[in-house]
């Protein structure tokens, strides 16, 4: 798997966005499906969360109020999105996103996503990105990313991005590169261990 360590050298040595984009082809990495992961252009402010609390949609514990499952007055979109969260078993994960919007750290990918939703200067950091960065940092592949991995490596990752003007101005592209690499590392490591 050492073949991918050069990928980080290529990222660090890149001088243009086009050179960064060329890394996908060089390492046979897939681009994100923009239909599945379109760029999120909206923000969610603290005031918006506070308004949801005033209406009772979000509790003081920063989760959706249970009455939502009984509320027939929700919009069709609200019903659909709530149903998707319920079906995926993701109810209560909104707490981490909300705390991220409040800029309260919980050390989770949902929390970091909340910070991103509040302010696009923050980074999206998910399990695949952390897996890639762990590989780059200590040359190990972690199949199952846990909270301690996120806690240990997320600040290092943020500092790496922010210390390089090209990377900082192309955060979404770097996220996409490391997301794709992290998926590939996981798949190849699982196959290797079989």
Question: Mind explaining what this structure looks like?
Answer:
The protein has helices spanning 5-13, 17-26, 46-54, 76-88, 94-101, 109-118, 127-138, 147-162, 165-169, 171-193. With 194 residues, the chain is mainly alpha-helical. It has two domains: 2-38 and 120-193; 46-105, no CATH class. α5 crosses α6 (109-118) and α7 (127-138) packs across α10. The protein starts with a helix and ends with a helix.
Structural class: mainly alpha
DSSP helix fraction: 55-70%
Give the overall form: elongated
Task: Report the average pLDDT across residues.
Answer: 93
Order of helices and strands: HHHHHHHHHH
SSE order and pairing:
Layout: H1 5-13, H2 17-26, H3 46-54, H4 76-88, H5 94-101, H6 109-118, H7 127-138, H8 147-162, H9 165-169, H10 171-193
Helix pairs in contact: 5-6, 7-8, 7-10
Question: What tags apply to this protein structure?
Answer:
10 helices, 2 domains, elongated, 194 residues, mainly alpha
């Amino acid at each position: 798997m050492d073949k991918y360590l050069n990928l980080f050298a290529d990222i660090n040595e890149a001088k243009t966005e086009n050179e960064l984009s060329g890394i996908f082809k060089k390492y046979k990495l897939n681009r994100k499906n923009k239909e599945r992961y379109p760029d999120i252009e909206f923000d969610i402010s603290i005031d918006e969360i506070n308004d949801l609390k005033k209406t009772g949609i979000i509790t003081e514990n920063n989760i959706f109020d249970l009455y939502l499952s009984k509320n027939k007055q929700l919009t069709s979109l609200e019903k659909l999105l709530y149903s998707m969260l319920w079906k995926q078993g993701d109810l209560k994960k909104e707490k981490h996103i909300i705390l991220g919007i409040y800029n309260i750290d919980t050390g989770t990918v949902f929390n970091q996503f909340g910070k991103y939703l509040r302010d696009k200067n923050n980074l999206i950091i998910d399990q695949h990105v952390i897996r890639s960065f762990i590989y780059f940092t200590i040359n190990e592949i972690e199949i199952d990313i846990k909270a301690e991995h996120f806690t240990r490596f997320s600040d290092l990752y943020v500092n790496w991005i922010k210390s390089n003007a090209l990377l900082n101005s192309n955060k979404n592209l770097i996220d996409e590169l490391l997301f794709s690499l992290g998926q590939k590392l996981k798949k190849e490591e699982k196959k290797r261990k079989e």
